[in-house]
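COURSE: Structural Biology Practicum
ASSIGNMENT: Worksheet 4, Part C
STUDENT ID: 0417
INSTRUCTIONS: Below are two proteins. For each, the amino acid sequence is given first, followed by its structure token string. Answer the questions at the end about the second protein only.

PROTEIN I
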Amino acid sequence: MAIFFALRYSVFMSYKIFIDGKEGTTGLKILERFENRSDIEILPIAEDKRKDESERQKLINASDFTILCLPDDASRVSASLCTNPSTRILDASTAHRTNPDWAYGFPELDQSFRSKIETSSRVAVPGCYASGFAAIGYPLVKHGVIGADYPVVIHAVSGYSGAGKKAIALYEGENRPAALDSPRQYALTQAHKHLPEMKQICGLDYEPIFNPYVCDYFSGMTVTVSLTGRLLKKKMSAKNVWEVFAEHYDPANYKGRSMVNVVPFMGEGCLDEPFIAANTMSGRCSMEVIVYGNDDRIVVTTRFDNLGKGASGAAVQCLNIMMGIDETTGLTL
């Protein structure tokens, strides 16, 4: 009888969730993904109290889970306000992604990542570009395709929603600058804030060269890494490299359901179409890995939604894992 009531309670119980920074793009999308979920109770904060530290501290410590959707410095402050040992925190900022005391919230990378998310009270949700690169770089290093000292170069394009509310307003405003009609390369000083986690999570000796572009469409992104065959640790064809990714992301190798899908290899390293559009995963929370090129110059691209697997979708996936439920709950695959 006691077991019956315990099981019944676990099925119908709800968790108290506080979102610190719910007015930002990521926070709003997380709230949207919580719609129609009866297992979650959102702890509200009055509009005039959003920056009141004592009020936020009260809500953080009253919650089962707090999700931080704040700038880095503000996230560090909010995390420090937590004194309740039962409160578990997910941080969507960059602040804690290289902190070994925090789990890195990309469960498909390895079973050890998933296990740490399941048990940790502190989870750092990866950044959008970092997620796209880690999905490529981690398997390449782990399986000995490239050495830790490989000269990695990353090219990436993203919709403008990844730049935040001010950029969205600029892109969607009247009489906007003509420059916004064109893809715009940025992070020109090679000091992008995602670089430290790209290096650390993938086990690289050096930070990669990173060339991101923001483009005139709302959401969706691609992250691309090119490999020179003669510089690989062992001789591999494009199909051999594809086989590494197909094996690594085989859902049978991990507990739970993988949300990283390796696109079938089309033969001779060719896709069934001559283009890779960056916006076709918009609105979805899964990710594609595509291998193409030829045996001398092998190219790997990840395609996903910067607001999905690259931000709010990843946060909700991690929350679901921490709650011990189906990780896809509330997500569109």
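PROTEIN II
(use this one for the questions)
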Amino acid sequence: MKKSMLLMAAMVMATAASAKIYVEPKDTTKTDTVKTDTIDPNKPVFTTLMEVPITSIKNQNKSGTCWDYSTLSFFEAEILKKSGKTYDLSEVFVTNKNYMDRATLVVRMHGDAQFSQGGSAYDVLYVLEHYGICPEDAMAKPGEMIGDTLNNFNEFFKVMTPYVTSIAKSDSKKLTPAWKTGLHGILDAYLGKCPENFKYEGKTYTPLTFAKSLGLNWSDYYSFTSYTHHPFYTEFPVEVQDNWRQGMSWNVPMDELEQIIDNALEKGYTIAWGGDVSDDGFTRDGLAILVDVKKVQDNEGSDMAKWLKLSASEKKSKLQKLGVNVPEWTPTQEKRQEQYDNWELTDDHGMLIYGKAKDQNGRLYYMVKNSWGESGEYKGIWYMSKNFIIAKCMDILVNKNAVPSSILKKLKK
């Protein structure tokens, strides 16, 4: 996903109207890896097939705000495609508004709802539509209020969570408005106060008028998922705790979920992806492969019991040794549902899909922008196999214009 300053320069030069399609070079030594002269035949060597322009890599640091960073990155890419302008939108504006709304729900439910750092792509869309947004420079930057340069929510949530819980579980017969004033004080102390108005490029805006000036139509954005416990081509709120706003997703067959992602990239759109990265095949080095554990065991001459007893570092070592030759299993609709129902497929990370690539063995990958700073082998970019993205996807957010018309016609509105 990330390819250093050279990649970023290439992306700025790319057209904002459509994806840049790369013809496979005859000289296969010209690839996109950081190091192409490795003597390790198992080390990935990637060739870019297509990529969509994106904004710079950000770092959520010690905060559970991947949903915020990935989705704002998605909307920044939408603006870049539509207008050619690069924006740096404020993540802390979104978290300030979102945590206030989430606390309000928890109090209304007398504590019978989860209050946590997590969220969904729909949270960002909701904030943009109902509260607006501001550029990064219009309010405190991440970490600024605690004397840091990056987010650190450890103390923040140790202060805020007991406060919200004490109000929600109160035995009072009636609440006063004062609890919201107190919570606003906590939010503003750690995140900064959301501006009522600000100047940007010589013009004065409110957050709502600034959001309107970005030129996006909030009704253009559809969420998609793929499960069999609801009818296909109908909408339902994906049943995960961080979908506390009950945002709706269109339910489509798994193969059509893949078609939507591919069609979006071909048309020059990015995709906000939410899914499970707890699998052994997701590494901190910028690679994700849908590992077929049984085949790995067979290759190693071991059995399942022995594999399960291995430590995380031992498993990582074995998988790194195999590199791009790690065997994968092929996802199916039935397996997706089984893993979801058994809690094996969980909602734990949000990222941005913006391109496609293949390795030296011909395996296909999506190029994915992460929000962990310029970490890993590819400086903040992850190469996630197509099988991994589809099998471990909880939901995606895309521009409806990126969806094949044949699929749009099936949606039961």
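ANSWER KEY EXCERPT:
Q1: Confidence is low (pLDDT under 50) at residues 1-31.
Q2: Residues 197 and 206 are 4 Å apart (CA to CA).
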